[in-house]
């Protein structure tokens, strides 16, 4: 019995070696905003435009992530998380649609009808 070894399983924590590209881009944007000391109106509007672009990219990436999660659940043929993921997906589509509508209003200055965009009932997906 003295010769027997106690075998225990060791779990390894495998963390990614580098940050997600979106986090790197966010940190870079924050670094640029903090480093620049200019407060002219054109500079501020340029920075605001960059921030709007960043928010739009984030919303689109979130929508794509939700779509991938739904596809994964469908492939696994589990119904447990499907309803929740579909709700998250439709909510993210609404957020993206709202952001696009507001951006177009700001660009054109005209009223843009939300019905000109595909609705949640359409068969097309944004992802």
Description:
By secondary structure, the protein is mainly α. The chain has a domain at 42-116. It is 61% helix and 0% strand. It is flat. It holds the Pfam family BPS1.
Task: Summarize the amount of helix as a percent range.
Answer: 55-70%
Q: How would you classify the helix and strand content by structural class?
A: mainly alpha
Order of helices and strands: HHH
Shape: flat
Q: Uncertain spans, ≥5 residues at pLDDT below 50?
A: 123-127
CA-based gyration radius: 23 Å
Strand tally, please?
0
Sheet-strand content, in percent, reads under 5%
The first-to-last residue Cα distance is 61 Å
The overall pLDDT average reads 71
Major β-sheet, in short? none
Number of discrete helical segments: 3
Q: Features of this protein?
A:
127 residues; mainly alpha; 3 helices; flat
Short description:
The chain is an all-alpha fold and 127 residues long. The chain has helices at 21-35, 41-76, 82-108.
